[in-house]
Amino acid sequence: MPMGMDKNADQQVIAGATNLKLTGWTARSGYGSSDITNDELIANGSATANVRCRIQLAANWASTQGALHVMLMRNSAEVKSADFANNSSSLTLPDTQVSLAAGDRIWVQITNSTSSIWAANATVQGGVNTYVSFDLV
User: Which single residue of 37, 45, 63, 92 could bond 120 by disulfide (Cβ 3.0 to 4.6 Å)?
Assistant: First the structure.
């Protein structure tokens, strides 16, 4: 049941975007049996799994007024989240152990809380450096 997906194309996250779903995913190398539906990994059975998530930006995040907040989701509940550090271009969430049931959805959303004169856009980069995966424990 291990599954994984890589971001297939760049996606802009404009200032003020709230709970934006990251879209445009393709099966990750080594995870050929991945079921990706509506930009979500769909568990095909019950298991305990380690979920991994890494987000790569096209350029360093540069705002001290507001955050770029990444949320790894299972169904509609947040599993793990973190903010990009200022002047960083990548964020790797710590591996998180979850119990999955058949049909559970693993996906990513992002919020950019910058606004007004402190507004900063970000671009999530497509490719193998932006991914979500899970492996059996």
Answer: 63
